[in-house]
Amino acid sequence: MSQVGIVKILEGGVFYAKDSSGNIRELNIGDVILENEVVFGDSSNSTSAKVEMELSGNDVIVLNQGQQQLIDSSLNEVTFGNEEVIFTKNDIQNAWNNTTNDVSDDMETAAGDPTQQETQAGQEEPTEEGRVAARFSARDGNSTNVVSDLRDASWTEEQTTIIPDLEDKLIEQPLPIVFTVIDGDNVVWEGNTGTYTVKAVDAVGNPIIVNQDTIVYVRYTNIETDDNDTQYTHNTTIEVVIKAGTSQATFTVQTKDDYLADNDERFNLEITGNNSTEFDMRTGNQTGGQTNVDTKILDNSNPSNPGGEDGGYGSEDTVYAIIEGTTTVNEGDSAQYIVKLVDKDGNPVTVTKDTEVTIKYTNKTTQDGDTEYNNGKEIKVTIEAGKNSSDKFDVDTIDDYLADNGEKFNLEITNVDDQGQFEKVTIGDINGDKTNVDTTIKDNTTTNPNDPSKTEKDEEQVVLKIVAADENGNPIKDANGDYLTVNEVPEGDNAYYVVLAFEPNTTKFNDNTKLDIQSGTVEVKTFDKDANGTTTQTKEDGTQDYVSKTQKVELGKVISVETLDDWKADNGEQYEIKITDKSYEHPTTGAVYENVVTDKDPVTTTIKDNTTTNPNDPSKTEKDEEQVVLKIVAADENGNPIKDAN
């Protein structure tokens, strides 16, 4: 398209140019006007708004407020004499209307009133009806006297007057006035479409059929809505086409169903213009109404109408709170977890306010003391504003000696305080998963507790030790309360011992270090020092001092060793008893300790008899007295007793 003009002045408003393809651009000073473009003002322009365009023939077109004009080459074709003149449609209409009034008296020719002049014959001619003289303004602002009476022309030959057909050039007939109105849905459920109709009507609202496809421009505006609440973004222009042969066109606005609690948000649709060259199309009805429609979107966040959306809450209305974290942790380490908010597709959902999530800790097979939390403890975590997940949080497991490999605890989301940000919050994902996490604690428990496992970073080996005890299995203590590993027993009595489990790495053996749980078995065995052990006593001559023992015994149960009474003065003889290394076995009911280590120190037992420095006075050390009888008998020369027949 060729250039036909340029914008010279633009004041007080916004004006546009639209080409034949429907492309619209906003005009600025210095912009060129192309042939067959329609120039029009914005409907919001004030009465003082105007645009002045200088055409290629130096003529100037002025449009005010919301006026529009098709710019084509015909605007440059009309001339009067040597002066090029152009008028707006309103100027022509006013001039035309003025001719219907009796204004001829106010008009004059360049030579004065024609009624005061004479013909060539010297006669005064009456004024002919319809013959007028007028003063027009040329484009330079000076007045030009246009003489229509040629009777006094300087030439005398007969003249032929040519009256150009100006009806289609300057005196354009006014276009019929048509009003464009819009109506449609004032309320729509989120996720549904709002339906709207743009109509061409007359002054009383009757439909007007258009004879050419006519575009009506409708501007979409967010009021409380945001971009992405509907298919349109703020200030989008929608081109609604009223087809030729019809009087109206219907269009829709698709709202987007989401999880945000934004009930009652509104958007607006407003007619801003049209491209009609068939009618003088005006925005709104005759009284200026029906120029726009407000539409309110209702979602599921209305507390007085929960689930009010079609079909109730859908997955698109819902935010899902999920928890993820460690499923297996070595005892003594920390398990980590995170809480997230996601949509139905698993995409992150960002909160605008700090959002508190409540987590419940539950022992499944763990016991209180296995982790930092006790059964039923609530843990509060926060998803900070601007984020879609909490920071990672820990559950510290507690390292111990107990064989509790495979114990489980559980973390479960019980509540989400979203502070009204979302229509609905559901715990778990769209499939109902990730509401909770089970965590299994792995420790050093093995089937062979005597060989340390390497599962944990630290080893807790329970110490097994044999100590002297009383007949009830109670450890014998020294003055400091420490358990003794030496004892004495009267000859002929039983000596007592007990094998106990003590806390890992201890070197002190007392009530404070003894474990509460005593379970499992070990082998104990006696060893001679200067006392002689035997399986069965057959002599009382001092060669058999105690009954030897190799026995599997239970931890915490009393062990006894029988000493043998004889008459021989062998006071102070000793033997030892100790645990066979790596002989510990888990109880048949299941492991109790992860790993054990055997203290190889024995208990030394001293056998006390009745020997004294005065053998004639019986000692009371033993419970039984073995008094040797002294008697003199007859003997031969070699000292051999002489015997009778028996």
Automatic annotation (TrEMBL):
The lineage of its organism: Bacteria, Pseudomonadati, Campylobacterota, Epsilonproteobacteria, Campylobacterales. Residues 604-618 have a biased composition (Low complexity). Residues 437-452 have a biased composition (Polar residues). Residues 99-145, 437-458, 604-627 are annotated as: Disordered. It comes from Aliarcobacter butzleri. Transmembrane segments: none annotated. This is Calx-beta domain-containing protein.
